[in-house]
Design brief:
Blueprint lengths: L30 E7 L8 H11 L9 E7 L7 H10 L5 E4 L1 H6 L9 E6 L18 E5 L6 H12 L5 E6 L4 H17 L2 E6 L6 H10 L4 E4 L3 H5 L1 H11 L3 E3 L2 H5 L4 E5 L1 H16 L15 E6 H6 L6 H4 L4 E3 L1
Helix pairs in contact: 1-10, 4-5, 6-8
Length: 329
């Protein structure tokens, strides 16, 4: 991967070689786990299929020896504490949380209930763990980014793909606690690239039209979307608005580029979801979250939508295309 190898804090969830047993023995007993997210994960999607595959590699088959209690806030963060309490009341063996909002909601869960988070940029800054190497409590999981470098890398790629860019609008969701934590890193990166940042807020789908209008009004050259359940669930609508307003976009999810966005750079999410199964197995077999260091991504994905580039009248430099993992014609 061109981004470089990000050292895994400690690959305790995996075998030493990174391989897994294809024919794992079935778990000896049935388990019930919780799943807390903003929106449902399609089991047929790349991420959903990867999670199922990761569980099967360790002997777990949903509906046979594993039952997953799924709860979703449908984008309303105020529902998360009640949903978390509901999962705790069901006496689940562990709770898997997707994203910073659901993960933060489990901070108040009893320490006897293990938590595995996915897709949290800064779990230390969010107060979920004491450190990446030593989580120190009942919560551990997978970060979505390399600390102190990821946002800078996204901006660098955006600037390389669009060399004339001098003003970038960043869409922030004020209900996402990670976004405010990411601002200093983004500003430092923008200063080095001599790019001016414009901050735009959107809490729900109804704010997206106004967000694009604000970006155009302030003469933004591109719109940068940070990871968030809102922008992921509205990726098709965002792509339509981007074409309407003729704004290039940068995303963290490849699915956003597949929906019509211009660029994405982010973790290889199926790779993370598959390995989530290994950590689920570790905890179900008795390992405490405090003994499972937080895992950082080791694989990243750069995607480019050339069809969108042509529609916007843009030419993506060969230096970017040669490093791309996925190119959509």
């Amino acid at each position: 991967m061109w981004f470089g190898s990000v050292a895994l804090v400690l690959a305790i969830c995996f075998t030493a070689s990174g391989a897994v047993e294809v024919e794992a023995q079935p778990a000896a007993k049935a388990y019930r786990i919780g799943w807390l997210g903003a929106f449902p994960l399609d089991p047929q999607s790349a991420n959903g299929s990867a999670f199922t595959r990761g569980l099967r590699e360790h002997g777990y088959v949903e509906g046979h020896n594993l039952h997953v209690e799924r709860r979703f806030s449908e984008g309303n963060p105020e529902r998360l504490p009640a949903l978390m309490a509901e999962l705790v009341s069901l006496r689940v063996s562990l709770i898997v949380t997707i994203g910073p909002g659901p993960s933060r909601a489990t901070k108040d869960a009893p320490p006897t209930v293990p938590v595995l988070f996915v897709g949290v940029n800064d779990p230390v800054g969010l107060g979920l763990v004491t450190s990446l190497a030593r989580p120190g409590g009942h919560i551990t999981g997978f970060t979505s980014q390399e600390p102190d470098a990821f946002t800078a890398k996204q901006l660098q790629i955006l600037k390389e793909a669009l060399p004339r860019t001098s003003r970038v609008a960043i869409l922030m969701n004020p209900t996402n606690p990670i976004h405010s934590l990411s601002l200093p890193q983004a500003q430092a990166a923008a200063d080095k690239l001599r790019v001016k940042l414009q901050l735009i807020e959107a809490r729900d789908a109804g704010d997206l039209d106004r967000a694009f209008e604000a970006a155009v009004r302030e003469r933004a050259d591109a719109l940068h979307f940070w990871g968030d359940p809102l922008t992921y669930s509205q990726r098709t609508r965002i792509a339509e608005l981007a074409l309407k307003h003729r704004l290039p976009t940068m995303h963290i999810f490849r699915e956003s580029v597949e929906a019509g966005g211009l660029l994405s750079f982010g973790p290889d999410w199926p790779h993370i979801y598959e390995r989530l199964g290994a950590c689920v197995d570790k905890i179900l077999q008795g390992t405490k979250p405090a003994d499972l260091p937080v895992v950082q991504p080791t694989k990243y994905d750069l995607s480019v939508n050339l069809k969108t580039a042509r529609a916007l009248g843009l030419t993506i430099p060969p230096s970017v295309l040669l490093r791309a993992d996925h190119i959509i014609e």
